[in-house]
Structure formats: C-alpha cells, structure tokens
Amino acid sequence: MVHESDLSRIGISLPKNLLDKFDEILNCRGYSSRSEGIRDAIRSYITYYQWMSDVQGERQGVITMVYDHEHRGLLQVLTDIQHDNLKIIQSSLHAHVSHEKCLEVILVRGDAGEIKKIAETLMAQKGVESVKLTTIPIEPHQH
C-alpha cells in the first residue's frame, strides 16, 4: 500500500488529443483515476526500458516506427539516420497509414548496443510518435 507521504506530486503538459486518447483508454480499462493510469504507464515504460537495457550481443530484430510525415525536415533526418547505419539496417518497409501518418518497419542485425542506439535516436526525433524495438539473439551456426 502506498502512503500519501510516499507520493510525489508533479505537473505535466500534454497535447489535448493525447490526453483525450489516454482518458478514453483509462475509461475503457476501468481505471479509477488518471494518476493510477499514469503510474501504470510509467511502470510499463520502465519495464520496457529495462528490457531494452538487458539486450546484449549479436541480435536480429525489427524497429517499428510511427511518425508524422508532414513534420518539417523529419523525412530527411530519418533517411540520414538509416543511411548512417547501413551495416546494421538490412531493409525497411514503409506504409502510408493516413494522410499524416506513416509506419516504417526496419529490419536490423548486429550488435545490440548499436541497434538500441539507432532505436533511441529515432525515438528522440520530433514528429516520431512511437518506436518499438523487438530483437532475438543470433544463434551461432552449428556444423
């Protein structure tokens, strides 16, 4: 049980459309408050970050990214990031989800640290809505 004295109060600013979507999900899932939902979301974010931090060695995987293709300069930045990582990025698939949104799936293979760095660089770009990294270890060849 969390005691009132253990809680820290924070203030955050969110775009209305993001807060509206969050509230809709909270309502559908039966949360009693935004605070409860935000705590859950932060726990999930921490778990995902820790999982990503544990990824080591040679990996094969995908980076799935959703972004606003109308965001000024973003397409060039995303292209440059991919071209700067030709040794890791094997292929990419681009789909137009709507007039504004694009989905990109990037096939990667190489050192986990380098793959994570690419995913985190993509995440940091303004106009990128979400980035998900999924990898598996590369098994050594059995002869």
From TrEMBL:
Question: Which Pfam families does the record match to this protein?
Answer: NikR_C, RHH_1
State the InterPro entries in the record: Acetolactate_synth/TF_NikR_C, ACT-like_dom_sf, Arc_rbn_hlx_hlx, CopG, CopG/NikR_regulator, Ni_resp_reg_NikR, Ribbon_hlx_hlx, TF_NikR_Ni-bd_C
Which residue range or ranges hold the Transcription factor NikR nickel binding C-terminal domain? 61-136
Q: Where does Ni(2+) bind?
A: H83, H94, H96, C102
Q: Which UniProt keywords apply?
A: DNA-binding, Metal-binding, Nickel, Transcription, Transcription regulation
Q: Name one GO molecular function term.
A: nickel cation binding
The Ribbon-helix-helix protein CopG domain covers 9-48
Give the protein's cofactors. Ni(2+)
Share an example GO biological-process annotation for this protein: response to nickel cation
Cofactor: record remark: Binds 1 nickel ion per subunit.
User: What family does the entry list?
Assistant: Belongs to the transcriptional regulatory CopG/NikR family.
Q: What HAMAP family would the database entry show?
A: NikR
- Cited function: Transcriptional regulator.
What NCBIfam families is this protein classified in? Answer: PRK01002.1, PRK02967.1, PRK04460.1
What is the name attached to this protein's record?
A: Putative nickel-responsive regulator
Q: What is the organism field in this record?
A: Methanomicrobium antiquum
